[in-house]
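Hi P.,

Sorry for the delay on this. The queue was packed all week, but I finally got your sequence through. Input first:
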Amino acid sequence: MSVIHRTTLEPAKLELLAGWLPTRPWYRGGPQEPELSGAGGFRLDDPEGEVGIEFMVVRDESGDAPVDYLVPLTYRAAPLDGADAALVGTAEHGVLGRRWIYDACHDPVAVAELAALVEGRAEPQAQSVSDTPDREVSRALAGEGPVPAEYPAVEDTEEHTGLTAPDGTVLRVLRTPHPAPDGAPQAEPGTAGHVTGAWDAPDGTRVQGLMVLLLTPPPAP
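Then the structure:
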């Protein structure tokens, strides 16, 4: 279960993200520096207990209107081989020491746990409380699976990050999540599964929306 340490992180996560977000193709801000705040999110457990996995919703208020971004991150005690391009930055944790922080879409441990969440084998954890399931996160899967655990192909677009498994299955991470109009998120037609989560709207109300979609390839003729 997730253990949250009440300590310092230097530089802070939002400081690191302020420099990293504008380099992403799905970032919608202008040339000015982002003005970031945390709006919500959840965590997943690494079965080996080595990698921290967090799905953050961060808000940028530097533009004409606030924009929310879904930013999955992993926290490691050593560099991840072959993932230099996915490194968000390094930081000093007050308890754990040096942490290497990565875009979790490129971290195989996080991706495997996200697939397990869609399938119902992983339990989402509260973002800021130890050993506490997050009851605001829900998942759905059409059929019984299994959902592939490995997604070696990663592609960023202006709307999402697509993770593709060797069999053509895609996990689509929605980088700019939107609140469901009626408070009850519904998956898009043609999707085989999804993950929804909750975060704080700019006015302080709690909203829910889709965060991840699962798309499966059409059956062979």
